[in-house]
Predict the structure.
Amino acid sequence: MISKLFAILDLPPADPIAAKLPLLGSAWPILIILISYLFFVLKCGKLFMENRQPFNITKIIIWYNLFQVIYNFLTFSAGIYVFFIKPIYNLDCMPTLALDHPNKNTERALSYIYFINKIIDLLDTIFFVLRKSYKQITGLHVYHHVVMIFVIYWVVRFYGVGAQFMVMGLLNTFVHTVMYFYYMLSAKVYSS
């Protein structure tokens, strides 16, 4: 059934290596994660917190932000390495590497690491709910998190990603490194 749908949509076959990675073998785990996220953030979490005081999770948030700074900085650094220090792409034209290219596994690994980080990013919104900071949960915020994961899933699954897609990841990890560093400092100041 699914293969017939892919044939009708003219979708390429899944990258055979990427399809074996956790969460990439089927769309179901990602759909379950995203539906659970939406259900918690938009309905269940608010009901859970309705008669409760906001949780004091400042220390958790500081550690989470530190983790994100390190994770995003290392991912950004790896991107700088494969783009500029030991380039695996011709920057004039950056097609996705062929499945049998010697650097394809590097491309897959960086893409997968980035994909996993987008899933970890969902914790931001969960922290907003637990702190009853609902004004930070905007439609754009939720839309951004859901679409990033959904689109990256399909691109990584079918192409093992890389190339021009990695430019977005490179810029995004730089911005997230700075952003989470700021959030970490703000959480420390806020907790004082």
